[in-house]
Amino acid sequence: MPSISRRSDQLGTENAFVVLAEVAKLQAAGKDIISFCIGQPDFPTPANIQDAAVAAIRGGKHGYTPSAGIAELREAIAKYVSRTRGIAVGADDVVVGAGAKPFIAYAILSVTDHGAGDEVIYPNPGFPIYESQIRAMGAVPVPIYLRESRGFNFDPAELEAKITPRTKLLILNSPQNPTGGIVPAKDMEAIAAILARHPDVWVYADEIYSRLVYDGAFASLASIPGMQERTIISDGASKTWAMTGWRLGYAVNKALAPVFTRWVTNTESCASQISQWAAVEAISGPQDAAEMMRESFRRRRDLIVGLLNRVPGVTCQSPGGAFYAWPNVTEACRIVGAKDSEEFRLRLLHETGVAVLADIHFGPRVPDEGQHIRFSYAASNEAIEKGVARMADFVRRHAK
């Protein structure tokens, strides 16, 4: 059989989907599983957005669109980003894609050269596709550690130490997956001051959870004077409006928009026209449903954090955004005799039917930071209460 490329052989994955497949097999075998694995809203897409999609179908909106997206959506996004980030954005600065995820690859491809030793700094723990795409695109991944003592943020001084003449891109994610942490405005200011001394470094600002902030205000690096020109804002419809399966995201940067457009032309051609018209309604229409979902996630956050902190051997900071809890289970691992968080996760799944992800699913474990697991609390109150109760019973049973 012909061989496959080294690039494909080394390509990483998103373990949420791997564990989800494992969960599906157990459920098919009749096991009672409560899953906290997948990071997607458990609400239906709001009715007005669904209606806009149906109207697009009935109206014959079935064909290709310009690779950068329909004018109506790009204009809506430009107004939305201008308003929410406090900056001036034009429609020509916006490129629409089949989800926000492709822009991770497009950004790396656009600012680094394969095999040239170009470096990309990315958060660890972090969305696993960051490291996977950095490696696949022939760049050098440079992790910067998110520390529990800093509310799962990195020390800006550590960022300066990581930047070298080969650094081409910094990936920022706030609110963060998997920790739910938020980069506060004061840290954004410190990051901007450091980057001012390194004018050749681009920034990929993954702001897909920007509307899911519960404590304080969302801060975007692009809002700081001098940063907009070199910041790629990445956002989309998936998390805010429960549109994960509609696959609709976008990137905003004046200089790189023409480059991203060519990448879209070379890969996906364009995003679904139906999804684009739905997104026009999502962004420009009533926001009541989006606010209802955000408030529901905030209440669930308070519920799960309170419950987790009553589990023996578990401590959990209250995440400022997104819909993830990142409890420290170092002591719980010791109590149950698990060597690490991955063994703890596997035993929790097979012995209690509770499915979570381990810290190693989001990059190499941060030195001296202990053991963590991730809960997605995009789940009902009943599931949260029952799932955490099973985990508590699991730990208590072994403590006795």
Structural notes for this entry:
- The chain has helices spanning 6-10, 15-28, 47-58, 71-85, 102-111, 128-136, 156-162, 185-196, 257-266, 273-284, 288-308, 330-336, 341-352, 381-399, and strands spanning 34-35, 94-97, 119-124, 140-145, 167-173, 202-206, 231-236, 249-252, 324-325, 354-355, 357-358, 373-376.
- The protein has 14 helices and twelve strands.
- It folds into two domains: 6-44 and 289-399, Aspartate Aminotransferase, domain 1, CATH 3.90.1150; 63-284, Aspartate Aminotransferase, domain 2 (3-Layer(aba) Sandwich), CATH 3.40.640.
- Helices cover 41% and strands 12% of the residues.
- It is globular and about 65 Å long.
- The relative contact order is 0.17.
Offer a concise description of the structure.
The chain has 14 helices and 12 strands.
Write the layout of secondary structure elements.
Blueprint: H1 6-10, H2 15-28, E1 34-35, H3 47-58, H4 71-85, E2 94-97, H5 102-111, E3 119-124, H6 128-136, E4 140-145, H7 156-162, E5 167-173, H8 185-196, E6 202-206, E7 231-236, E8 249-252, H9 257-266, H10 273-284, H11 288-308, E9 324-325, H12 330-336, H13 341-352, E10 354-355, E11 357-358, E12 373-376, H14 381-399
Parallel strand pairs: 1-10, 3-4, 3-5, 5-6, 6-7
Antiparallel strand pairs: 2-8, 7-8, 9-12, 11-12
